[in-house]
Design brief:
MmpB-like, 1 helix, Morphogenic membrane protein MmpB, mainly alpha, about 40 residues, transmembrane helix, rod-shaped
Length: about 40
């Protein structure tokens, strides 16, 4: 790895997509927990 190498940074749209997927994962996890609570109470 040379000091003159450009930084290995993904393009912006890739980072945006990654962020969106992470948020989606959190939302899905929350939805699952809520569903389990509802099923448990039902």
């Amino acid at each position: 790895m040379l000091w003159s190498d450009p930084e290995n940074e993904p393009p912006k749209h890739l980072r945006d997509t990654e962020e969106m997927l992470r948020r989606l994962g959190v939302l899905v996890a929350l939805a699952m927990v809520l569903a389990m609570i509802v099923i448990g109470l039902g």
